[in-house]
User: Which sequence fits this backbone?
């Protein structure tokens, strides 16, 4: 027996031993049985915990909407919103600055009033399910950094939106949608460079065979990236993630330390190939356009409903018209109702892209079992086996079952070559 043959024999035996029964290579490979075997390998109590975590998230969509509406009601029904506008108008004669100054107050007040649900959702609940690695102090510090970034970006963005409203009249939703799409593109282009480093460190991945394989996959598919970076996200969370972020000069391939330390070579290759898929399939650009359009329809909904809502409930709110900053809580309340109703559309836009990247990743990495086991790991915080409509409505990524079944189907179709290795 020569050494190469021995190595293949040993690794094949190892794969057979490590795979759940039924998922192993067999003469008659049954992708459905293999999928069931993978799903059955998760202990019932783990499954119950991740189901509870994920299903709780469905309710949080509703609670966030209702909570946000209550905050808007407090601002509008009390004199608070009007006083914030009057304060802004006293400070500056220029409409742009008045709106920006109102927006800063609005963002601060909603941050403070929204803090209880933010703490529950982002801190308490994440700890309950063992997903957060942060103590309260550092977590709160990051909330403040996020607030600071939000004040700058949103303060400016909102002032621009209101300027568009004043200049373009009844068709403001059209121009507002277009301008927001451009803003979104800039945000996505620059956030890896300016925002992400505020929360995490990016260090070049240690040289070695795994890094060489990742760069080789990128090179083979024409992705212009010379390096791979590791993000220290274990500071915040136990979740795994990776990214091919940015555009043009800001392009960066990264994976987080949870994936690097907890993943096998096959799993990491499977994930990185998926991320390369997002980049190569043009998902960054198509996502910006699709979300921009969704936002434009949202603005159209606001344009249609703003005066109706004001006439129905807001006789005493003192809002002059839609361009009056004092009406901002109403504008965002209506937008949040729209995004609540558009949840399945928003999730489906992203999920369809994810499915494409999944298939791309399987074809490039050729690691169906690595992708299946990573789907099980992601199943720690994403319900593994939802109903058909449940997945369409609530999932922005395919469920574990969908991904494993996709991987096993791929494996079944590619099995003759795989076993001939
Ligand atoms: Zn993805």
Assistant:
């Amino acid at each position: 027996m020569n050494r190469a043959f021995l190595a293949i024999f040993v690794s094949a035996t190892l794969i057979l031993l490590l795979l759940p029964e039924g998922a192993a290579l067999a003469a008659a490979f049954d992708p459905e049985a293999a999928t069931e075997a993978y799903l059955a390998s998760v202990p019932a109590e783990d499954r119950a915990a991740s189901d509870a975590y994920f299903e709780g998230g469905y309710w949080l969509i509703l609670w966030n909407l209702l909570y946000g509406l209550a905050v808007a009601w407090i601002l509008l029904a009390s004199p608070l919103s009007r006083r914030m506008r009057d304060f802004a108008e006293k400070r500056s004669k220029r409409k742009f600055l008045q709106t920006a100054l109102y927006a800063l107050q609005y963002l601060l007040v909603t941050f403070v009033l929204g803090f209880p649900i933010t703490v529950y959702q982002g801190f308490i609940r994440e700890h309950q399910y063992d997903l957060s690695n942060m103590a309260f102090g550092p977590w709160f510090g990051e909330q403040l950094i996020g607030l600071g970034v939000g004040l700058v970006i949103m303060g400016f963005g909102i002032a621009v939106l209101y300027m568009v409203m004043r200049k373009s009249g009844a068709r403001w939703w059209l121009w507002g949608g277009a301008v927001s799409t451009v803003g979104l593109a800039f945000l996505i282009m620059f956030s890896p460079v300016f925002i992400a480093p505020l929360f995490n460190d990016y260090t070049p991945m240690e040289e070695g065979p795994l890094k060489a394989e990742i760069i080789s996959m990128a090179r083979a598919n024409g992705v212009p990236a010379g390096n791979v970076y590791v993000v220290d996200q274990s500071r915040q969370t136990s979740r795994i993630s990776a990214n091919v972020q940015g555009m043009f000069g800001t392009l960066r391939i990264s994976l987080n330390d949870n994936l690097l330390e907890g993943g096998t070579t096959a799993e990491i290759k499977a994930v990185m190939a998926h991320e390369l898929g997002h980049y190569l399939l043009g998902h960054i650009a198509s996502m910006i356009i699709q979300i921009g359009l969704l936002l434009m329809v949202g603005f159209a909904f606001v344009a249609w409903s703003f005066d109706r809502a004001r006439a129905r409930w807001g006789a005493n709110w003192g809002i002059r018209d839609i361009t009056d900053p004092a009406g901002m809580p109403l504008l965002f309340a209506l937008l949040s109702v729209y995004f609540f109703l558009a949840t399945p559309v928003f999730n489906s836009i992203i999920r369809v892209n994810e499915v494409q990247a999944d298939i791309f990743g399987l074809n490039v990495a050729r690691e169906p079992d690595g992708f299946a086991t990573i789907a099980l790991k992601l199943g720690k915080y994403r319900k593994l086996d939802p109903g058909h409509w449940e997945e369409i409505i609530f999932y922005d990524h395919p469920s574990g079952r969908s991904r494993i079944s996709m991987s096993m189907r791929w494996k079944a179709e590619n099995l003759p070559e795989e076993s001939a290795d």
In short: The chain has a mean pLDDT of 91. The CA atoms of residues 88 and 98 lie 5 Å apart. Residues 44-77 form the longest helix (34 residues). The pocket of zinc ion is lined by residues 274, 278, 354, 357 (CB under 6 Å).
